[in-house]
Amino acid sequence: MSVKHDPLDPIEQNSQFLLSKPTSLWKGAFGRLRRRRTGQVGMVIIGGLLIMALFAPLIAPFEPNEVLIGKEEIKRREAPCYDALDFIGMWRCPTEDAPQHLLGVDGNVRDEFSRVVFGSRVSLAVGITVVVIAVTIGAMLGSIAGFWAGWADNIIMRIMDVILGFPSFLLAIAIVAVLGPGIRNAMLGVVIVSIPAYARVMRAGVLSIKQLDYVSASRSLGASPLRILWTRVMPNALTPLVVLATLGLATAILDVAGLSFLGLGAQPPSAEWGTMLASERNQIFSAPHLVFFPGLMIMLTVLGFNLLGDGLRDALDPSLQD
Amino acid sequence: MLQFIGRRLLFAIPVLIGILVVTFFLARAIPGDPCKSILGEKATAEACERFAENKGLNDPLPIQFGIYMSDMVQGDFGNSIRFSRPVSQMLIERMPMTIELGMTALIIALLIGIPLGILAAMKHNTPTDVGTMIVANVGVSMPVFWLGLLLAYVFALLLQGTFLELPPSGRVTAGLISVPFYEAWGWTINEEGFFGNILEFISNHFIFNSLITGDFEIFWDTIRHLILPAVALATIPMAVIARITRSSLLDTLGRDYVRTARAKGAPERRVIARHAMSNAMLPVVTVIGLQMGVVFAGAVLTESVFGLAGVGTALVEAITSRDFPVIQAITVVAAAGYVVINMLVDISYAYLDPRIRLE
After folding, report:
1. Interface list for A 251-270 with B (CB within 8 A)
2. What are the pLDDT digits (tens) for A271-283?
3. I need a labelling partner for A122 at 20 to 30 A (CA). Which of A116, A216, A301, B306 fits?
4. Contact at 8 Å (CB) between A50 and A73?
5. Shortest distance, CA B269 to any CA of chain A (angstroms)
6. How many of the other CB atoms lie within 10 Å of CB of B162?
7. How far is A250 from chain B (nearest CA, A)?
8. Which residues contact B348 (CB under 8 A, 6 or more apart)?
9. Which residues contact A83 (CB under 8 A, 6 or more apart)?
10. How far apart are the C-alpha atoms of A312 and A249, rounded to whole Å?
11. A217-247 pLDDT, tens digit each
């Protein structure tokens, strides 16, 4: 009897399925992320920013802190002027041979475009550093609390409750007020206020995973608690943290920019967007471009990470798809 | 229900004590000698010794904390270093501004956010839905200080001379003075006393004060000054509320009882208003409580942008002059307010959803 090939045979279909290579969680998620509009827009914005930050010296025509007095015939806070964009009123040059500055020059006669480009390095570095530190500490505290329970759980989570009891930005301000203004202290303030969210999510994940069968199996095989936590529980509890961390990047960048705007974060002459905006805020009526562009960049960056985070959440949880 | 409220109150107490512990140690963590930072760099050793004795700085930490806690609970926040006057007096003057700003922003956020969310959910997967969610996503990502400056640019400069012109800074037009209602009504009160302080606090809410005294010039002027900052401050909560309303309503619209309501022929408007919304509101209520923290933090930035003399600007000024009693008092008051508001939210949540009470 010859074996006939029948594509509709359920048994054969099943075996085909079983023989096919399994797609990993992350590969599948990335595929779904690419197909979703929010994820696409988020990836484009963040990708653009990464390129801007990596190739800043190639993109920017000047050094971020290069003062152009004596080098060019240009006044302080000169409006944007760019011949190629002449058809849009905003970029019309006052004279034929005026120096070309895409986003104008600032109060210290520095090229605003170069500063905005280099600012992407500051903001991305700040956001990523804050989130990596906060996630590491939060994940550690959360897994200790969830895995060992008991008094450690109580102490850690009550401390987290207290931190969450403050409006977060306000606590960050108070911390910077104590430590003194500066970008490092501002980042530390934001790290401290963002730890509890990660700790809570990690703890919830660890609590539910440590009861699963494969963890019991490891335990019955004699694996040490640390080994179980490190190789069995943590990798699986980290997934929700990835979404939270992406959204956390948005919050961290926004908060540090806000602190810088209040004069508590990055200090001049740093090309940080919040600081750039703050130092020209009183010129909003005479030189709006110096307020508009740095703020626009903050908004776009935050939007990019928010969209990416939303897209990731949908992509990692296929049950949410409508 | 009473039992639930009692439990929730008990849960809030450790958090409140924790907040006091954190602010207590924050104050102790300031680099430098507390005596020198309060009495000045040239304070003598004797003066410092007397200062430490008076302030109880020589006592053991737990006793210091006990004194600190009882002072805070009684509303005694010490004296401002910069202005040498009680911090509580500054709060009485400045808090009403922040409360008015925050409440107005929250009302705007609710009045726009909830209908936007409902609209997006009703027109799910249509251009209206997509458009609303684009607005909401941009709104969530908005730096309030930037939006505030842009609003000031548009409404104070570009629209100058039109009926849409709005003032870019200040609480009332210079020259206008809000007369406290107790003076307008000819009451004689002791302004230093507890009762006088409360009346002063109430009368510093200019909108309320001008409304009850019938001073409509001040009333209108205050509102006009409040519009731009309140709109800037409302943006993020508005967007968050719109998003949560949409997703929560979409979730309820898929439920069986909604299908039943539709099947029995109820008009869509009624299905949404009566059957779906009452259940969809639960997550929205929670988010409103959490957004109060965002509103307060945003108020610091908004007040700074619009030059409003509220608690937020007091905080920023106190940081630049290292006036720690002021920073400490504002942090404690804001955190306590935030805890109380979230407690009220939880209680209202239990009222809306009886299942919560039993957990």
Report:
1. 254, 257-258, 261-264
2. 999 999 999 998 8
3. B306
4. no
5. 23
6. 8
7. 8
8. B285
9. A93, A100
10. 13
11. 998 999 898 898 888 888 888 888 988 999 9
State residue A72 phi and psi, 5-degree precision.
-140, 155
In whole angstroms, give the CA distance from residue A82 to residue A91: 5
Of residues A71 and A10, the one with the higher pLDDT is A71
Instruction: List the structure tokens of A233.
Output: 């529980």
* CB-based contacts of B50, cutoff 8 Å, min separation 6: none
Can you tell me the ipTM of this complex? 0.88
| Chain B contact present for A182, CB below 8 A | no
Considering only CA atoms, which of A246, A234, A265, A258 is closest in space to residue A311?
A246
String of b and e for A280-302 (b: at least 16 CB within 10 Å)? bbebbeebbbbbbbbbbbbbbbb
Is residue B292 within 8 A of residue B95, CB to CB? The reply is no
Contact residues, chain B, for A166 at CB < 8 Å: 19, 22, 293, 331, 334-335, 338
Check if the beta carbon of residue B26 is closer than 8 Å to that of residue B328. Answer: yes
Among candidates B146, B250, B316 on the partner chain, residue whose Cβ is nearest the Cβ of A298: B146
Tokens of A215: 């963890």
Mutate which of A154, A163, A173 to disrupt the B interface (most B C-beta within 10 Å)?
A: A173
Q: Which residue is listed with tokens 């870019």? A: B168
Question: pTM of this prediction?
Answer: 0.88
Q: By the CB < 8 Å criterion, does A223 face chain B?
A: no
> Considering only residues 224 to 253 of chain A, which have any Cβ-Cβ distance to chain B shorter than 8 Å?
250
The angle that helices A112-148 and A37-54 make with each other, rounded to 10 degrees, is: 120
Residues A285-312 have pLDDT tens digits of: 888 999 999 999 999 999 999 999 988 8
| Residue of A116, A123, A162, A253 to mutate for B, most B C-beta atoms under 10 A | A162
Q: How many CB atoms lie within 10 A of CB B344?
A: 14
Residues in A closer than 8 angstroms to B31, CB to CB, are: 180
* Residue A1, pLDDT score: 47
